[in-house]
Design brief:
conserved putative lor/sdh protein from methanococcus maripaludis s2 fold; Elongation Factor Tu (Ef-tu), domain 3; 6-stranded antiparallel β-barrel; 25% helix; elongated
């Protein structure tokens, strides 16, 4: 006869075994995923212009009415060439006034010198006091100082008269004009802008997020719009430190080395990033998991022998390095390669080694490529 306690233990074991056999396996979860691809947005073209690296705004150093401007946009100028003049009447009168003042001061000095000579003679005969001689010499010193001041004023007036002519400081091309004859211009106001023809840059404005994907010496393919097949290579030379507050774009200056004549100053060019030098991968922010100070994605290994409509796969966590991209996306700097498949939704509820269902590309539940 079986003891009641032994019978109860056997019954419990049988019941537990039946329960284990009847518990169904966890269902394979469908997951939204996408294959990683190179982001074509990072390869888009931008329209810009060819600009001189070195240019200067020329302006008069004095106020005046613009009399002539002998150059226009596109003209070639040589160093020292007169490009504009202002009315010199007032400046010429200032010179004449300074010359007259200098003549007056010299006459006063001559008179003071004659007085010193006369007093010295009287002093020698004892008919003039020593104090009179000292006063005469002091008056001469003052008259001599006044002459030197008048000479300096005359030199300054003549220099100002020379400012009535605006001359080019180097060989270059006129790229802009700022005033027309007859206009009153202030001191320092730009009259013409002269640029050196070489070296030249291609200047473009790109989205702020794209700057973070470029290397410090990134290369670009640059072509004139009038001849798209005449492509040359340019190298990133300067990046604006701040984005434009209205357009949220940043200005890039791309150095052009020995550009042909088609790349003349002011011409319009099309600039495209070099795919080989700057491959770009971006993912939606929802596909990136932040954990313990690191960033991760769920990489899916798919069993290619399954159904064509959907196949089973296994997820594994992989750490990646990210950088800001455009709104709602992150740039993947390292950790992923084109062609791999990643989960792009529900990343917080997945577990390492978990089985998932991956719909085939183009079927409902799949988003295809993630670039």
């Amino acid at each position: 006869m079986i003891h009641p306690l032994v019978f109860a233990a056997l019954a419990g074991l049988l019941l537990a075994a039946c329960q284990e056999e009847t518990v169904p396996p966890p269902p394979v979860r469908p997951v939204l995923s996408a294959r990683v691809a190179i982001d074509e947005a990072g390869l888009q073209s931008f329209v810009g212009t060819v600009e001189a690296r070195d240019k200067v705004d020329l302006g008069f150093q004095v106020l005046g009415r613009l009399l002539t401007r002998t150059v226009d946009v596109g003209d070639v100028v040589r160093s020292g060439e007169v490009v504009a003049t202002i009315d010199p009447t007032t400046l010429d009168l200032t010179v004449r006034s300074a010359e007259a003042a200098l003549g007056n001061r010299r006459a006063e000095r001559e008179n003071a010198a004659a007085t010193v000579t006369r007093v010295e003679a009287l002093r020698a005969t004892g008919t003039a006091a020593e104090a009179n001689l000292e006063d005469a010499r002091t008056a001469y010193d003052a008259a001599d100082a006044a002459v030197r001041q008048a000479e300096a004023d005359l030199a300054k007036a003549r220099d100002a008269l020379g400012y009535a002519e605006l001359r080019a400081g180097f060989d270059g091309i006129v790229t802009a004009t700022g005033a027309e004859p007859g206009q009153t211009v202030a001191a320092g106001e730009s009259i013409v802008t002269i640029a050196k023809p070489d070296p030249r840059d291609a200047v473009i404005d790109v989205p702020d997020w794209l700057v973070g994907t470029l290397k410090s010496a990134a290369t670009f393919a640059v072509a004139p719009q009038i001849a798209p097949d005449q492509t040359i290579v340019g190298q990133l030379r300067e990046t604006a430190p701040d984005a434009d507050p209205l357009t949220r774009t940043r200005r890039l200056k791309i150095a052009l080395t020995d550009p042909p004549s088609l790349f003349r100053l002011g011409s319009t060019v099309e600039v495209r990033t070099d795919r080989r030098a700057s491959p770009t991968i971006t993912l939606p922010e929802a596909a990136v998991l932040t954990r313990d100070g690191g960033t991760f994605v769920w990489v899916i290994t798919v069993n290619e022998t399954g159904s064509l409509a959907q196949r089973e796969g296994t997820v594994a966590l992989r750490q990646v390095t990210t950088a800001p991209a455009d709104q709602g996306r992150l740039h993947i700097v390292s950790g992923l390669s084109a062609g791999e498949r990643v989960a792009i939704a529900g990343v917080h509820s997945l577990q390492g080694g978990q089985k998932v269902l991956v719909p085939a590309d183009g079927t409902r539940g799949s988003e295809g490529d993630a670039s």
